[in-house]
């Protein structure tokens, strides 16, 4: 029957229409509503909130910070995650599985607990790393980590690293080891093999991992909130403030919609680029 | 396959250290005998684990998270089974768009979903309720449940079903005796992955949970925002312990690599 697949997916479709599509449309509508300290939310159509976000440089700086952090997190993850995936792939049987579990496992451990770990390692004078470095005399004052962008980048890179390893690992699984062997047989050194044979073939994996890491870093909430504290705001923590502290929901909705639109544009154009670049090779 | 050189192994050791250090340090501090954050070396104590029992908000948040995860994952699996069968077996107009819609909670930032749910639930009178939490969690864990049910539905050998039909089985009997048992491993692992994701979710939930309906990660997050003390490290250590146990079971039962990489998972 022609209608069977539609009937089968109808329950889930209805659920998503009501619980995903309707709330998102409502949020876009909310961003055009008026808000006042005493009158609350007024369901009218105005551009006040959008104008405020686009003209006040505070929001521009905040979005710039959000994407700057996401960029450096992606860079760190690619630089360190890709080689690790390659090393992991060359390991022998029991170790491969064990270390894959060790590196991918943190993905499923609460992000709050993982960020707490960074706060314990670097938090002010009592942080383990700072204490150790100061007692050896390498540094005289604690490394600034908490409430800094660098701290956010390192902690987020740690939180999101498994996604990069996973993406590169998946690309490595499709690689034919005979090509590497052929290159070696033809006299290529190990460095040449990695640069000329392995890297070009896993590039799509690195790029798709980068897209995932970038999106998750730009929209991360718990880690920037804990490391950044109340001073250093990114898009998601600012939206949270507007919704649960200032209670200016329309303004918070503008920030959320802008973040969503920016990320969708970045993902779509980046995926297009990757597909076009590699379509001939892997199509 | 050639072996890793000493340089590669040193890099690997550093990398694993980087990945594990923050997690291990939380568990380490949790065993401090002191009343403040410190790294115990000679004396270890369980006092902060006992202290959890004196904070009923953590205990009740834990049970709520457990119930929320179990319930929303089970409902998500129930929704995804028919959808997975439709996507795996039929080619129909709108199939790609539908799959993209079901997978969209993975791509939409959770902070945006949290805001959208907060607005929506407040309007329909579900604001701050457990029912609202369940609805929201069903949606955000459905992609995980769907991915694994889809993988097992795609891998299903239809010849077995045809054999049952030719031997006189009715459609219902085929579904009950052949199809469902064959996709069961996919359902169970889909449920487990969905459960872990629900259990750990904080970004979206922090928007829609009210003081009476906070989940454990939300309670931990709000607690850390105020101050960091040994109590929250012992709670975190418990969460890490539970997750690691679940991970090991899941890895033995299904294989973590298969679970996360997903093989022919998305049916494309």
How would you explain this protein's 3D organization?
The complex is a heterodimer of chains A (283) and B (268). With 283 residues, chain A is mainly alpha-helical. Chain A has a single domain, classed as MetI-like (MetI-like fold). Helix content of chain A is 76%, strand content 2%. In chain A, strands 1-2 form a two-stranded antiparallel sheet. By secondary structure, chain B is mainly alpha-helical. Chain B has a single domain, classed as Orthogonal Bundle (MetI-like fold), CATH 1.10.3720. In chain B, 75% of the residues lie in helices and 0% in strands. In chain B, α3 (56-89) crosses α8, α6 (130-154) packs across α8 (171-200) and α7 runs antiparallel to α8 (171-200). At the A-B interface, α1, α3, α4, α5 and α7 of A face α1, α3, α4, α5 and α6 of B.
Q: Care to give the gist of this entry?
A:
The complex is a heterodimer of chains A (283) and B (268). Chain A has 283 residues and is mainly alpha-helical.
Q: How does CATH name the architecture of chain A?
A: Orthogonal Bundle
Question: How many runs of DSSP E, i.e. beta strands of chain A?
Answer: 2
Oligomer: heterodimer
The CATH superfamily of chain A appears as MetI-like
Question: Could you give the count of β-strands of chain B?
Answer: 0
CATH topology descriptor of chain B: MetI-like fold
Distance between the termini of chain B: 30 Å
Q: What is the CATH topology assignment of chain A?
A: MetI-like fold
Number of helices of chain B: 12
Strand content of chain A: under 5%
